[in-house]
Amino acid sequence: MDRWQSPLLGPNCKRRHHDPNLIPHPSLVLPDLLRRVAWVGIGQERQMMNYILNSDGEPEACPDLMTWAKSFETQSRVVAKEQVGDMLVSTVFLGIDHSFSGEGLVPVLWETMIFGGDLDEHQERCSGSRADALKMHDRVVAKAKGHQ
């Protein structure tokens, strides 16, 4: 076997000579990849926090990386989808805090995005509960309906 490098996956991924299309299973790559993901807060480097959805569909912190990875792989993270003309509005649970601005902030865990139409790739993100994500989804749907 030869080693190959990818800027994203790093040097620990292997590919067999006879199968050039072989891609490592996410459970092998994900821990190494997430160890590399750190962001700079206010004057310091810190590890990003992962979240999973509990049985009520609400986010909760998940410090164990393998538990998070299994949940991320098996749970449905789609909160809502709605077709508005030629635009699809989709709201999902992100699973990783996207606040990126330093400690003490409420984690940003939900994203609504428009695919297609005049507002293609418009996105909004929010923190809070599933109910907050659904309110954001409704606002973006109204925005899409206003652009039909």
Summarize the structure.
This protein has 3 helices and 10 strands, in the order E-E-H-E-E-E-E-H-E-E-E-E-H. By secondary structure, the chain is an alpha+beta fold. Helix 1 (26-36) packs across helix 2.
3D architecture notes:
By secondary structure, the protein is of the alpha+beta class. Helix content is 26%, strand content 29%. Strands 7-8-9-10 form a four-stranded antiparallel β-sheet, with helices on one face. It is elongated. The chain starts with a strand and ends with a helix.
Task: Supply database-style keywords.
two-stranded antiparallel ribbon, disordered N terminus, alpha+beta, 148 residues, 29% strand
Tell me the count of domains.
Answer: 2
- Morphology call: elongated
What is the H-and-E element order? EEHEEEEHEEEEH
* Percent in helix: 25-40%
In round numbers, the mean pLDDT is 75
Radius of gyration: 18 Å
Task: Indicate the structural class.
Answer: alpha+beta
Unreliable runs:
1-46
- Between the first and last Cα atoms, what is the distance in angstroms? 54 Å
**Strand fraction band?**
25-35%
**Number of E strands:** 10
Main sheet strand line-up:
7-8-9-10
Reported for the largest beta sheet, the result is:
4 strands, antiparallel
**Number of H/I helices:** 3
